[in-house]
Design brief:
about 500 residues, alpha+beta, Chitinase A, domain 3, 3 domains, 4-stranded antiparallel beta sheet, 18 helices, about 50% helix, flat
Length: about 500
């Protein structure tokens, strides 16, 4: 589980919820835009709120990492804040610096929004929204014990009740402005052609003929599909090509305690001994069992190698073993030592149920892929259509399942399918092997109904992007009191906590 990546994504999203307040009594303007101001009180509150939120996320993901045996984000929250990350511009900064910079960006973002809300006379009037805000405020008063105590607690974070109230109201300002500009009757309503173009960029549409490798029983247990064409002879041949049983003599060229290489003189002695063992075996002067007793530094039973699954340090042993016939020997040099190996015939208990099952599964998958390949060649050659595979009585095979009109975004579909679909034109076909099955796909054109069904979602996505560009276009006009801003530091800011102080402690 990629805790760090997910952690950073959640932080970025959360920052957009931060808000602002116009300067109140005793506060000082920290950010200004065309007469609208965000105060030092609100900025202090923003820092503390975000730090508390970040602390909660840190504790949660560290707990999850521990539960699932994953690496923790950091040993402590302070260590995490001091650890390095990469910001949006590709610069290496600490997590604290990156978060601080994002809060500054959020302050600019929201002071611009606040200004335009005032300019257009936009206010929160929805009764349910107002009631929700008032309920939150009342809950905080109850938590603190009274309004007086709430103000005392908030003062530790440079804020007060009025700052919190404005914060809650301001969090809804962006949505008000967005609706005013890009809503149904918005002044900057997007052109329909732009929305349709965006829809065609974001989505793909394919018909799919899916050849699944596995099937599930009523209890959800997954098993490989039964293929009658797989024979015992094929299984035995598969095992012979997939597995190799060997005896071996091993002379280490490393210290098995420290894993350090031996001296050149010691390695030369090991090489000479390995050559001697190999020579005696080739000349029939000694049996392999006797060679193991006489020369080997590892007295183990014969082992079975599975092709492609050997440790890289001894990969030459695998390569040599599969090149041998039963009864043949080879001398092999590896990173850890010299091996003299003899391939043996696999028989009896060597071929257990697990190996047989693996062999059958591999052959069944090969057979299903052949059915998929045949279907692909038929539809490409015009000898069949996808629709032919939807009729259970006359379909060309029993394994392909047809699903028409799958519409998706790239991040909603398997990467291999996305890659193939992006490489072909409408009405062209492709074939893709996945871990779960083989897919024959056809890229198809969108219908007008496809566009209409996803219009609202596409419009909102594009409009939100345009809205963000619009707001950020005014950043250069935002005036920042750098001297006052330098007094704030996310690393040392207090994390917001409204738990009342126990006066008896």
């Amino acid at each position: 589980m990629k805790f760090k990546k997910l952690f950073c994504i959640v932080i970025c999203v959360a920052l957009l919820a931060l808000s602002l307040v116009s300067c109140s009594s005793g506060s000082k303007a920290l950010f200004s835009f065309r007469g609208t101001e965000l105060s030092n009180k609100m900025y202090s509150y923003m820092l503390s709120s975000q730090k508390a939120y970040l602390q909660q996320l840190f504790d949660y993901y560290n707990a999850m990492a521990s539960m699932y045996g994953q690496e923790e984000i950091a040993a402590s929250f302070e260590d995490y804040l001091r650890s390095n990350t990469t910001d949006a511009d590709g610069n290496t900064v600490t997590v604290a610096q990156a978060t601080n910079n994002m809060i500054i960006e959020s302050a600019k973002y929201l002071v611009v929004i606040d200004h335009f809300c005032k300019q257009y006379g936009l206010e929160i009037t929805d009764e349910s929204a107002i009631a929700e805000i008032e309920n939150v405020l009342e809950e905080d008063i109850q938590t603190a014990g009274s309004l007086e105590y709430l103000n005392i607690l908030l003062s530790q974070f440079g804020a007060d009740y009025d700052v919190e109230k404005q914060y809650l109201y301001s969090t809804m300002s962006a949505e008000l402005l967005f609706d005013h500009l890009y809503g149904e009757n918005g002044a900057q309503r997007l052109d329909e052609n732009a929305v349709k173009e965006q829809f065609e960029k974001e989505y793909n549409k394919i018909d799919v003929l899916y050849y699944a490798y596995y099937e599930s029983d009523d209890e959800g247990n997954k098993t490989i599909k039964q293929i009658d064409s797989v024979t015992d002879e094929q299984i035995n041949e598969y095992i012979a090509n997939k597995y190799a049983k060997i005896k071996y003599v091993l002379l280490y060229t490393i210290d098995i305690t420290t894993l350090n290489k031996l001296s050149e003189e010691e390695i030369a002695q090991k090489e000479a001994a390995a050559n001697q063992a190999y020579s005696e075996l080739k000349n029939g002067e000694i049996t392999f069992d006797a060679a193991v007793e006489k020369y080997s530094e590892s007295k183990s039973d014969p082992i079975v190698l599975s092709k492609g699954e050997t440790d890289e340090r001894v990969k030459p042993v695998e390569d040599a073993a599969f090149a041998l016939k039963a009864g043949e020997c080879a001398l092999v040099s590896t990173e850890i030592g010299y091996y003299v190996i003899e391939r043996q015939m696999m028989e009896g208990d060597d071929i257990d149920d697990s190996i047989k099952s693996t062999a059958y599964e591999g052959l069944a998958i090969d057979a299903i892929n052949q059915y998929a390949q045949a279907a692909y060649e038929k539809v490409v050659g015009g000898l069949a259509s996808f629709e032919d595979y939807s009729d259970s009585e006359s379909k060309p095979d029993d394994f392909g399942n047809y699903t028409p009109g799958i519409i998706y975004k790239d991040d909603e579909m398997d990467e291999s399918i996305v890659e193939k679909a992006n490489q072909i034109n409408v009405n062209d076909y492709a074939i893709v092997e996945l871990s779960s099955g083989c897919v024959v796909l056809k890229k198809v054109a969108f219908s007008e109904d496809d566009y209409k069904e996803r219009y609202d979602e596409t419009y909102k996505s594009l409009a939100q992007s345009e809205f963000d560009k619009f707001i950020r276009g005014f950043y250069s006009e935002v005036i920042v009191d750098e001297e006052e801003l330098s007094k704030f530091d996310f690393l040392t800011a207090l994390a917001l906590d409204l738990v009342p102080i126990d006066e008896n402690s």
